Structure formats: C-alpha cells, structure tokens
C-alpha cells in the first residue's frame, strides 16, 4: 500500500532504515530522509567523522572545512578531549534547572569568558549562557528593555540596528537583523524599530571615501536618533565585523568610538554582536578590542564551544547588572536549557584546548598565511576585494573590477563558486546581496584556527579553480 508520500507504509524494506543510508527510493523517486532539511530539494551527504580541518561523509569522501562550517569550528573537528569532558560532566550531572541550581561548569566558563572580555566587563560583569546566537540576541533585546524599566525609563524599548546585518533567526533577532533576504518572508510579523547605514567602505552607502567621509556612516545613527524619537530607544546593536551578510567587512578606525559616543549622548545601550567574531576568530578574544571598544553587552556563540555543543553567551557589563541589582533583581526571561552543564563543560574543554595550544595567538599569523595564499585570487579580474580580520575573511566577486559593478542576482555566482569549489572538496560559505540585499556575491572563509599553510593553499586553489570554471575572465 502506498502512503501519502509515495513510499509503501506496510513494507519496511521500501524505506532504508540503516543509520547512514541516504538514498532515493528509485521506484518512487521519493527521498527517504525523515528530516525537514534546510532545502527539501537538495541532497545532503551524511557527515560521519571529523578530523582537524576535515569532515568525512558516509562514503569516505573528505571535505576541507574552509568556513569552519559557519564560522563555528575554531579548534578543529574530532578533538577527543571535548567529548570526554562532556561525557564526564553528563555522567556526574547532566542537567539542573537554572531556577534552582547553578553548575560548576557554567560558573567556571562565565569567569573565564569575563577574564578575556574588554576591561569594562571584568569587575562585576556577568554572563548569561544560551543555546546559540539567536537566543543570545533575544536575551539582549529583552535585557535592554528591562534595564530601562529597572532604571525608571519605561518609554525606552526600541533596539536600533544597521542595514545589511544579521543577528539571528528568531522573530526578535529578525526584527533587528537588516538582512533583506532573511527578513523578507517574515516582514509582516516583525516590528521595524529602525535601521541605519552599515560601515562598508567598498560599497559605501554614501558613495564617499574613508577618511574624507568623516565617518558619515556612524553619524547616520546620530541623525536617525535625532529624527526618530530617541527617548523610545533602548539600544543599538551592530557587528564589529559583518560576517554572513557582507562577507567579513570590518569597521574602519574611529567608527566604533564614534558610535559609542553617540550611544552615550542619547543614553542608550551599545550591544556588540560578536556571535561570529567572538572567542578569537578575528585575532583578539573579542573583535571589539581591535578598536578598544567597551560595549554594554556583548553577544557571542559559535566558537565558544567550537560546535561541540549548542552554546551562546550574553556578556553583561557591570552598569547593566547594577541596575537589576538595585531594581527587581529578577530578569523576566529564561530558557529551559540556558547555562546547560554539558554545553558549558564543552565550552570549558574548548577553552582549555585553546589555551594549551595557544590557538588565540595563532589566528593573526594564520590569517596572514591565508591572505597570502589568496593573493592570486585577489588579482583575478572578477575578484573585487579580499577583506576581513584574522581568520574571518571574505572574497567578493564583481563583474567589473574598476567600477565594482556586481553580477546580476540571477547569475547566482556565489552559489556556483561554492559548487565548483566542492569539486575540489573544499567547503565555502556563499552569500548574496552584500551591496543592497539583492546584488553582490561573496564567499566567507573562516577555517579552524589550526589550519596549516598547505590547507590555505588548497582553499586558494579551489577558489581559483571555481573562478575559472564559473566566470570566464
Ligand atoms: C552575527 C551573528 N549573530 C547572530 C547569529 C545567530 O546565531 P545562531 O545561528 O547560533 O542562532 C549569527 C549566525 O550566523 C551571526 O552570524
């Protein structure tokens, strides 16, 4: 008998139930996966093993993870110590609800994260652990709102952000995200609190040049606040280096100081979204430190557990903590799995590994090695720019190098480059829309911090091969 989906519901052989089987049922051409995949039309290999910068699928094929998946994997795949630490924690106590208990693992990790945070977090800062970046953004939005309730300024609730940004996929995080494509389907469901210009010199929204521009992009925040009821604004959130949306576009010197000054002037909190850039990815523990920035709240995720467990964190500066302490003391927010003992044990084991192998210190040097390997790519007539900081780098493809004109969206260049690089077994993270949310193609490179020089060469060779295959020079 055929079920609704086309496969026989009575004959178990018609569905492959082996753990790594991922085939089509040829008789019905119906997929046998039970997962609601990211794209139901796409076939996904099954990842079974990881080692260093490599992922191996069920057929034994190896892939060089040039993007650390999505800028997640910092210490590399398959580090046995991490699994052992997680097993040990879970054998002692796997879960205790945060309404009733703290755990040693979470306490220890919070103290360690604060110790490497910008100076203003060190004396009385606190950490709120989540299960990922989007939850960290949600938490920060609500924290900013409640901070102003505790501070007797109940009119403040809006969280401003920048166009061309990404802060997460939940509805609150989407409402601040300025990523046009990711927002579009949900537009009727999300509030528009206000978005200002990004800091993106290669495609400056004001068509100006740094430093003659005198940071017009930063002043856009001030102009927006003056024109749009600043007394209802609670916070401003931004990515110090814009990851997925702009392909590793760092702030220019002076930008973060200017926005910090504007936030102070208007009495609003400054939130640095370091979900992608935090925990060493750009060569400093937090990217804010490249410019000596001391935000009120820092969001982090991804590298904090290097993908070994779902973990994110909100670092809260003492002045915000104090407002709660003097006020209700109770944050009206929470997740069942926040500060999970096994996830934070993974975070501690990753931290140990980073420290033992001095991996933070390796990022700047290794980033330079990757950049050198990419020199040949940069000179390609259809590569507009290679940019980034440390091991968060982006390559933007252009139709015309002189005018920076992009390829048409329909050409799907970034995705085609990804596919072609895959022929060389190199995994890239493609993105489209870096100019205006629609046009502009780039790939993001964010390999594990342990990447070797020969692997950097393999990445550059694969991008060069893909350029040759996809774009005729
Ligand atoms: C800057 C930034 N913020 C927030 C998020 C959301 O994090 P997650 O996907 O872990 O929910 C991401 C994810 O890519 C990100 O890059």
Write structural notes for this entry:
The N terminus is likely disordered. β1 and β2 form a beta hairpin. The strands form 5 sheets. Strands 6-14-13-12-9-7-8 form a 7-stranded mixed beta sheet, sandwiched between helices. Strands 3-4-5-17 form a 4-stranded mixed beta sheet. It is α/β, with parallel strands linked by helices and 473 residues long. α2 runs antiparallel to α10. It is globular and about 65 Å long. Helix content is 33%, strand content 16%. The structure holds pyridoxal-5'-phosphate. The site of pyridoxal-5'-phosphate (PLP) has 17 residues, from α4.
Shape: globular
How many strands appear in the DSSP assignment? 19
Task: Work out the strand percent.
Answer: 15-25%
**What ligands are attached or bound here?**
pyridoxal-5'-phosphate
| Radius of gyration (Å) | 23 Å
Counted by DSSP, the helix tally is: 14
**What low-confidence regions span 5 or more consecutive residues with pLDDT below 50?**
1-30
The overall average pLDDT, rounded, is 93
Sheet bearing the most strands, described? 7 strands, mixed
Distance between the termini: 55 Å
**Structural class computed from helices and strand pairing:** alpha/beta
Q: Percent of residues in helical segments?
A: 25-40%
Spatially, the strands of the biggest sheet line up as 6-14-13-12-9-7-8
């Amino acid at each position: 008998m055929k079920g609704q989906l086309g496969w026989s519901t009575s004959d178990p052989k018609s569905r492959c139930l082996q753990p790594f089987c991922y085939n089509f049922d040829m008789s019905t051409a119906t997929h046998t996966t039970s997962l609601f995949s990211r794209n139901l039309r796409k076939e996904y290999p099954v990842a079974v093993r990881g080692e260093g910068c490599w992922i191996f699928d069920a057929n034994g094929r190896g892939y060089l993870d040039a993007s650390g998946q999505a800028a997640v994997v910092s210490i590399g795949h398959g580090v046995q110590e991490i699994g052992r630490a997680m097993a040990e924690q879970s054998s002692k106590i796997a879960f205790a609800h945060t309404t009733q208990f703290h755990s040693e693992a979470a306490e220890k990790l919070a103290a360690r994260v604060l110790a490497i945070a910008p100076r203003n977090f060190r004396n009385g800062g606190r950490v709120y652990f989540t299960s990922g970046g989007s939850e960290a953004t949600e938490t920060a939005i609500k924290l900013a709102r409640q901070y102003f309730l505790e501070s007797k300024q109940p009119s403040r609730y809006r969280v401003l952000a920048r166009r061309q940004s990404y802060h997460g996929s939940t509805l609150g995080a989407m409402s601040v995200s300025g990523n046009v494509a990711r927002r579009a389907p949900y537009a009727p469901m999300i509030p528009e609190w206000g978005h200002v210009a990004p800091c993106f010199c290669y495609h400056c929204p004001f068509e100006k040049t740094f430093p003659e521009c005198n940071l017009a992009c930063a002043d856009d925040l001030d102009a927006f606040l003056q024109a749009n009821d600043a007394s209802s604004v609670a916070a401003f959130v931004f990515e110090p280096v814009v990851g997925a949306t702009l392909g590793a576009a760092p702030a220019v010197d002076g930008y973060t100081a200017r926005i910090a000054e504007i936030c102070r002037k208007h009495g609003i909190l400054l939130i640095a979204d370091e979900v992608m850039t935090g925990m060493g990815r750009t060569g400093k523990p937090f990217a804010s430190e490249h410019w000596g920035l001391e935000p009120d709240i820092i969001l982090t995720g991804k590298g904090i557990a290097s993908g070994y467990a779902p973990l994110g964190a909100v670092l809260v500066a003492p002045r915000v903590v104090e407002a709660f302490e003097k006020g209700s003391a109770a944050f009206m927010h929470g997740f069942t799995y926040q500060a999970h003992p096994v996830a934070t044990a993974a975070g501690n084991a990753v931290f140990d590994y980073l420290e033992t192998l001095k991996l933070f210190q390796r990022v700047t040097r290794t980033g330079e090695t990757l950049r050198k390997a990419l020199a040949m790519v940069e000179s390609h007539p259809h590569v507009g720019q290679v940019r980034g900081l440390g091991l968060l780098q982006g390559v933007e493809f252009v139709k015309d190098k002189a005018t920076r004109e992009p390829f048409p969206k329909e050409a799907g260049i970034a995705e085609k480059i990804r596919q072609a690089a895959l022929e060389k077994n190199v995994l890239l993270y493609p993105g489209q829309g870096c100019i205006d949310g629609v046009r502009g193609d780039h790939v993001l490179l964010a390999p594990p911090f342990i990447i070797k020089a020969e692997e950097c060469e393999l990445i550059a060779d694969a991008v060069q091969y893909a350029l040759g295959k996809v774009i005729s020079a």
